Amino acid sequence: MVALAQTPPSAERLRALDGFLAEAWADQRAHDDRLRGLAVEVRFDRGVGHVTGEVADPEELRLVRDRIGRLAGVFGVWCRVRVGGRDPVVVDLGCGATKQWPGNLGLDIFPAPGVDAVADLSGSLPLADDSVDVFFAVHILEHLIDFLPLLDECHRVLRPGGVLHVMSPWWGHVNAVADPTHVRLLDVQTIKGVCLQRPPGTPRWYPLHAGCDGASIFADLTPVPPDADPPPPSHLARFFD
Questions:
Q1: Order of all β-strands in the sheet with 76-83
Q2: How many CB atoms lie within 10 A of CB 74?
Q3: Torsion of CA 128, 129, 135, 138, to 10 degrees
Q4: I need a labelling partner for 46 at 20 to 30 A (CA). Which of 25, 192, 213, 226 fits?
Q5: Does position 110 have pLDDT exceeding 80, yes or no?
Q6: In sequence order, what are the beta bridge partners of 204?
């Protein structure tokens, strides 16, 4: 018998954790001159930071993401932020009737309220190169026998500095096997494989954040060119064995 090391936190603990994170972020922002004047709002929900507002340039958004991601207890940093006066192009993959933010573009294989375009996510996405700032793949990868082509498509479509947000059931939780339409089991180490174990010439990803709450895995990935330096071991050690 294999003993599972993680159990999902209770709803009460998650509410307390969100309160702690809100206080920690307010304290960090008050003591960091780089953050104090930025017009962003951060809401924590079950350990995920939801960031909205506006910044002047991509470097400010990267700073906000990085500072939030360094708080103990954060599982992911999800952003819908205007940069330099431009609204981001945000796409929900496999959204059904639920989008992460109103105004996102919704793609799904089945038509439904909230679905803006019907698309087979196992094939090519009906989107131009370098046209999207943020992808959400929330509870979708586990439904695909081979999800790597979808990740490759996201890599093609994301603008430089764009982010793919992933959330999927953790393999050790009953939710991973309770749904008969789930055909893949995922772990945080799966994200490590996506970022570091693809063959030469295939699209490469840099992990901005990765984590597991005992029920779901989370990952924030940004595309990098083939000749980019690999992530330093000190960065990888934050997330992976």
A1: 39-45, 48-55, 76-83
A2: 20
A3: 80
A4: 192
A5: yes
A6: 224
